[in-house]
Design a protein that fits this description.
The chain is mostly helical. It has two helices and no strands. It has helices spanning 2-56, 62-83. Helix 1 (2-56) runs antiparallel to helix 2 (62-83). The termini are far apart.
Length: 85
């Protein structure tokens, strides 16, 4: 009977350790996902700023501004098409 109790306690301990390890790796994955989303948001903001600078200064270098704006817009359209189901 003592051996049976020891086995049950052992199984419970293994399950608890497995759950702790699973929770740990899941929290790491969640943190990485949040960091990636934050980085993507920063890059999108930077891209919007570059597009705005190119637009507001288009009279200084119209050809370059057009190239920058068109390149950004075409990539945004490609990304939107990939997101569609």
């Amino acid at each position: 009977m003592g051996g049976m109790l020891f086995a049950i306690v052992g199984v419970v301990l293994v399950v608890l350790i497995a759950l702790a390890v699973l929770a740990f790796f899941r929290s790491i994955a969640d943190e990485r996902a949040r960091a990636a989303e934050a980085r993507a948001a920063k890059l999108e903001a930077l891209l919007d700023e570059v597009k705005e600078v190119a637009w507001t200064n288009r009279d200084i270098a119209p050809e370059l501004s057009t190239i920058i704006i068109d390149t950004i817009r075409s990539r945004e359209q490609e990304a939107r098409r990939r997101e569609l189901p």
